[in-house]
């Protein structure tokens, strides 16, 4: 398109030049070369127009292809979403089937166990049957004996029947008495239910007062817990500060001892050898050794364990007062020892 515009511009310029040349009197008419150039430019213009038409057709076809592909992509995306949904459904189904399989396996295990126990029972029953057969034979023999005894018992039965009739009369009397007692029981139940209703009202009021007291005690317990946690943190913090102060005092003592042992000239000589200043040399002398760092790590771990132990005590079951007092007294004794050590160090340094 740009070439086309350039060519059109050149053509217009040539035409303008030819017109101006024709109008002016002194200037001669344009030569054959100019005409040739004009023809070439027109030919180029036609070619560029043809190319533009070709490219526009290709662009249209490409656009149509792009639209078709976009539609195809949309269809594929819809298909993918459907497939994903199917996949998710299948996954859920598989998970359900797995859970069911596990449940069935467990049921199968239980059923196998029950089957084994039943088989054992069947074996035991078979043994019992054989024993019972033998016992039946013995019972048959006893039956013969029992039939003989039956006649004797029949006589006894007649006597018992007479006694039963007498007891039936007694029973009727007892039943009448039972009815009377049941009436009395119903009256007692009504009075008891009324009394229970009154007691339920009283217990409800008592429960409300107990709940209020419980809420107050819970608040007090929370306050106590926060107090204990704050106290333990402060204790641990003060112990750590004392340790750091003791370390600093020890370092100061060591540095002073080194300074006393070394003269000013030797210090300057050592600084010149090491190519450092005297203050840098003092800092080098003050560097902690590996044992001291390990000791500090151990102390830090012990403090951490102590705090965790107190937390466990507070969160544990009652009673824990004795264990808590022992743990706090242990830390207080440690603090006391550290204070004594620090005071003795300070005296020696002074």
How does the SSE layout of this entry go?
Blueprint: H1 2-23, H2 32-261, H3 264-274, H4 278-285, H5 290-315, H6 321-349
Helix pairs in contact: 1-2, 2-5, 2-6
What do you see in this structure?
This protein is mainly α. Helices cover 93% and strands 0% of the residues. The chain has six helices and no strands. The chain has helices at residues 2-23, 32-261, 264-274, 278-285, 290-315, 321-349. It is flat and about 170 Å long. Residues 25-30 have low confidence and may be disordered.
**Uncertain segments:** 25-30
Q: Beta-strand level of the residues, as a percent range?
A: under 5%
Average pLDDT confidence is: 78
Q: How would a textbook summarize the main sheet?
A: none
Please report the total strand number as a whole number.
0
Principal-axes geometry comes out as: flat
Distance between the termini: 98 Å
Radius of gyration: 57 Å
- Structural class by sheet pairing and helices: mainly alpha
Instruction: Give the H and E element order.
Output: HHHHHH
By DSSP (H or I, 4+ residues per run), the number of helices equals: 6
Helix content: over 70%
InterPro entries: CNTLN (IPR038810)
Protein name: Centlein
Outline of the structure:
With 350 residues, the protein is an all-alpha fold.
Labels describing this entry:
350 residues; mainly alpha; 6 helices; 93% helix; 0% strand; flat
């Amino acid at each position: 398109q740009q070439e086309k515009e350039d060519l059109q511009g050149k053509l217009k310029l040539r035409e303008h030049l030819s017109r101006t040349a024709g109008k002016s009197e002194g200037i001669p008419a344009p030569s054959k070369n100019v005409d040739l150039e004009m023809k070439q430019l027109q030919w180029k213009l036609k070619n560029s127009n043809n190319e533009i038409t070709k490219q526009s057709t290709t662009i249209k076809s490409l656009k149509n292809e792009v639209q078709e592909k976009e539609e195809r992509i949309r269809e594929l995306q819809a298909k993918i979403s459907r497939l994903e949904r199917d996949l998710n459904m299948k996954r859920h189904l598989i998970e359900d089937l797995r859970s069911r399989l596990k449940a069935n396996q467990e049921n199968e295990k239980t059923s196998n166990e029950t089957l084994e126990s039943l088989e054992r029972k069947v074996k035991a029953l078979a043994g019992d049957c054989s024993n019972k057969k033998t016992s039946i034979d013995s019972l048959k023999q006893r039956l013969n004996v029992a039939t003989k005894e039956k006649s004797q018992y029949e006589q006894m039965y007649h006597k018992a029947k007479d006694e039963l009739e007498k007891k039936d009369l007694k029973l009727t009397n007892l039943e009448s008495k039972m009815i009377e007692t049941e009436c009395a029981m119903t009256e007692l139940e009504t009075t008891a239910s009324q009394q229970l209703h009154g007691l339920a009202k009283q217990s409800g009021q008592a429960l409300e007062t107990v709940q209020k007291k419980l809420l107050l005690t819970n608040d007090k317990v929370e306050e106590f817990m926060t107090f204990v946690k704050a106290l333990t943190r402060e204790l641990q913090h003060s112990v750590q500060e004392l340790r750091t102060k003791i370390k600093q005092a020890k370092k100061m003592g060591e540095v002073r001892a080194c300074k006393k042992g070394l003269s000013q000239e030797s210090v300057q000589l050592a600084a010149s050898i090491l190519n450092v200043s005297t203050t840098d040399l003092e800092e080098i002398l003050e560097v902690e050794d590996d044992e001291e760092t390990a000791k500090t790590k151990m102390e830090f771990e012990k403090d951490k364990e102590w705090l965790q132990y107190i937390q466990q005590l507070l969160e544990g079951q009652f009673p824990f007062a004795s264990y808590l007092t022992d743990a706090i007294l242990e830390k207080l004794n440690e603090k006391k020892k550290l204070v004594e050590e620090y005071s003795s160090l300070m005296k020696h340094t002074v």
